[in-house]
User: What shape does this take?
Amino acid sequence: MNRFWLSDDEIASIRLLLKDITSRYKSVEDEELLDEICLYAHELPRRIRSFLNNFKLREPSPGCCIISGYPVDQEKIGPTPAHWKERPELSPTLDEEIYLLLCGSLLGESLGWATQQDGHIVHDVMPIKGHEYEQLGTGSEELLWWHNEDAFHPFRGDYLVLFCLRNPDEVATIFASADSIQLSGDHLNILFEPHFTIRPDESHQQKIKVIAAECSRQDRSLLEASYAAINKMNTDPERLAVLYGDPKSPYIRLDPYFMDRLEENETAQAALDHLIRAIDSNLKDLILMPGDCLIIDNFRAVHGRRPFKAKFDGNDRWLKRINVTRDIRKSRSVRFSPSSRVIY
Ligand SMILES: O=C(O)CCC(=O)C(=O)O
Ligand SMILES: [Fe+2]
Assistant: This one.
């Protein structure tokens, strides 16, 4: 794993930058801040900018990297919330959320989904009571099957960026690199063809949405239309290729838990089974610790999470998460304005 350690000087400079930003903005959901964040990111220490520029341009193995060393004050951030909808007016993790956005801004534009966490850009990942056995970031007792983030969607992010606030039980994130896959020519060819389907994962399903009455940020009818689009992708998923890009070093688009068996095409199913087994046998554990910012190239690596026992005592594992796209224009047809970041 490619890990970047912040120096003391770099931490001091990031803190100054955060002080400047938080004197003007009080929420990461403030659209003005989101418009300005890429300018502020130019003021991050040059070594970080260079590290992420290299990650973006050269796509080094294993398709993820970590920036470590940002100090997280456990007292200041307070207890792990019980649900992502608990959002105090002034977030106790505002600094950490802005730091996460700054890092993401070096790779592209952050992106939200009307159908996920109430359309917020910065998500919380912590165990939620009642989600224990769900295939969700907020699940716990079940293995969160490895996947590409939002693999079902044509406008899925290029990157997923996770910032760890706490992880006292050392619960492992899992990942595997696309580079670890060895395939025969026949398998490769068929996996590059549109035979496969991926249904929307549970995080976009209507059953977990907040009750509409609480959904103040969004126009209800538009949200209903968004869910209708998701439902259609569920009942009538398009056929897609699970590998794309350069056959010598393919990009991947997979979420096996939400992929139906291809009863009518045994050859394609056999190639997919082979690919899934190859990834399974190359999975690695990664324990995020407070202050770690994990950047996953969503075209080059899959990720998931080991099962764990949540205590729901305010001290459970807690991450912040953003999706980042390199080209926000491609989703213009499903966003309100050129600069809005929420996909409907
Ligand atoms: O909890 C983790 O380490 C990863 C969860 C996940 O897949 C996600 O947040 O997208
Ligand atoms: Fe994920």
User: Anything to note?
Assistant: The helical segments are 8-24, 31-41, 46-58, 74-77, 94-105, 185-191, 220-235, 266-280.
